Amino acid sequence: MKAIAFVTQKGGSGKSTLCINLAIAAMEAGSSVCILEMDRQATITDWAEHRDGEGPEVAQIDATQLDDVVDRLRDYDYDYVFIDTPGVDSPGTLSAIRAADLCVIPCRPTPADLRAFKPTLAAIYRLEKRFAFVLNQTPPRSYRNRDAADGLAVLGVLPDVNIVMRNDHQDAIGMGQGVTEFNPQGQAAREVRKLWGWIEKRTNFNNQNKGQALTNVKVA
Ligand SMILES: Nc1ncnc2c1ncn2[C@@H]1O[C@H](COP(=O)(O)OP(=O)(O)O)[C@@H](O)[C@H]1O
Ligand SMILES: [Mg+2]
Fold it and tell me: Which domain holds residue 60?
């Protein structure tokens, strides 16, 4: 099992949206995924409540529970646990980074977002974790994307796909779906699938086991 944490203290940059869409894309690609939500805003729990489709299992936990829950999940046969974190640097974010095999840092191509991930990145460096930026909510084409991508590529790894600002992301979440379910042929779906392919390779992990661990792991 690999843990992927979605981290950056900037609210609204797309942690929860990417977490949901990548979880669905990963499941469609044959992996089993569960989601631990550490944000009291409960974006993902709300999404799951609107969901008719199968999986992923979602549990809300706090920072004090994370290590223990991730440890117990390792006894089950999930391929991935995705960890969504709040929009502030908190003990929760730190423990999510510590538990992660890969940290995904969503970032809009704006000066505020490009500044905001720095404390998160410092923690990731300190804990010597692998990480990747994802440029999210980008305009379809803009010098801003190129400038932001150049800047991020200097600091670390950047996938070969940006997640463009598209209505599908908002509409899909409203319906309890991922963009790849909501509009499978759409551009948003194509971008998310490509991003998942990149992340899957980077976590170098692709077994086909399925799991239902959270129903067995009691989360207080
Ligand atoms: N690529 C995108 N295109 C359009 N809207 C997006 C995209 N990514 C995120 N959003 C929207 O931006 C808002 C904030 O995203 P969210 O994932 O909740 O951020 P965070 O979890 O980092 O606070 C939400 O309303 C979401 O629907
Ligand atoms: Mg969120």
Answer: 2-206
| Nearest-atom index, ligand 1, CA of 170 | 27
Report the number of distinct structural domains present in the chain.
Answer: 1
The DSSP letter of residue 31 is -
Nearest CA owner, ligand 1 atom 10? 14
Per-residue pLDDT tens over the stretch 146-178: 999 988 988 888 999 999 999 999 999 999 999
Tell me if 108 CB under 6 Å of ligand 1.
no
- 201, 2 contact by CB (below 8 A): no
216 within some domain: no
Which atom of ligand 1 is least distant from the CA of 163?
1
d(CA 135, CA 109): 7
CB 100 within 8 A of CB 5: yes
Ligand 2 centroid–CA 43 distance in Å is 6
Q: Helix, strand or coil for residue 210?
A: coil
Residue 110 lies in a domain: yes
For residues 131 and 124, is the Cβ–Cβ distance under 8 A?
yes
Residues 6+ apart with CB under 8 A from 196: 22, 25, 26, 29
b (16+ CB within 10 A) / e for 118-140: eebbebbeeeebebbbbbbbbee
pLDDT digits (tens, 9 = 90+) for 118-148: 999 999 999 999 999 999 999 998 888 999 9
